[in-house]
Amino acid sequence: MIYHKKMYKKSKAKRKRNLKWIPLMDNPFPEEVEVDWHHINNIFVIPMPRISHQKCHFSNNTNEHRTFCNRVLSSWYGLNIEKLLEE
Fold first, then answer.
1. Share in percent of the chain as helix, strand, coil (round to 5)
2. How confident is the model over 65-78, as pLDDT tens digits?
3. What strands lie across the sheet with 22-23, from one edge to the other?
4. 72 phi and psi angles, rounded to 5 deg
5. pTM of the predicted model as reported, rounded to 2 decimal places
6. What distance in Å separates the CA atoms of residue 2 and residue 53, rounded to the nearest whole number?
């Protein structure tokens, strides 16, 4: 992803909901795949293809969106996000 696009997304996320923006990993997807950085909590973000992230928007409820996306990301990356966030 082009650096200025990444910085724009970061500043937009901060401005919109006063969230922190700390990536837990580098973007593993090829450049041609548009990526959204999904907040797994109010601090940490993980890359997710935009099309998949948009499909997680079945509700306007932020908690439902975050829970659903976190389950998807857990299965993709083999992470136990809930346990990771407890530590």
1. 50, 15, 35
2. 888 999 999 999 88
3. 22-23, 44-49, 35-39
4. -60, -50
5. 0.72
6. 19
pLDDT tens digit sequence for 20-69:
889 989 999 999 999 999 999 889 999 999 999 988 877 678 888 888 99
Q: How many structural domains are present in the chain? A: 1
pLDDT value at residue 49: 94
* Residue 41 CB-half CA count within 13 A: 10
Instruction: Say if residues 49 and 35 touch (Cβ distance below 8 Å).
Output: yes
Q: How far apart, in whole angstroms, are the C-alpha atoms of residue 83 and residue 44?
A: 14
Q: Do 74 and 46 contact (CB within 8 A), yes or no?
A: no
